[in-house]
Amino acid sequence: xxxxxxxxxxxxxxxxxxxxxxxxxxxxxxxxxxxxxxxxxxxxxxxxxxxxxxxxxxxxxxxxxxxxxxxxxxxxxxxxxxxxxxxxxxxxxxxxxxxxxxxxxxxxxxxxxxxxxxxxxxxxxxxxxxxxxxxxxx
Length: 138
Prior knowledge:
mainly alpha; 5 helices
């Protein structure tokens, strides 16, 4: 029953994605399509939210499917793969952003390099904060 509660929370988050996406789309329409960033980002959030709603509804509708999903999410091998994938993604994004900072600075484009440098610094600080919180928790 605990997993079904978790799925219901995910369902609520998917509805939140849809509402946020609709708010962005409506804001861009009211602005007269000033730039299509908000419209496209909002539309993507709506589509993602709807896809998640259908997926979670399919999982929670059938007790056997719900149990199968619960087993899949509690499997240690799958958890390890997900953890390593997140770790690689984090590391590669920091290395890539760091390389962009170096290349842009060598090219003399210091203003363009600054957002990437702030991203790297912010992610390292966020990692440090999360590491300390998790270290104290466990």
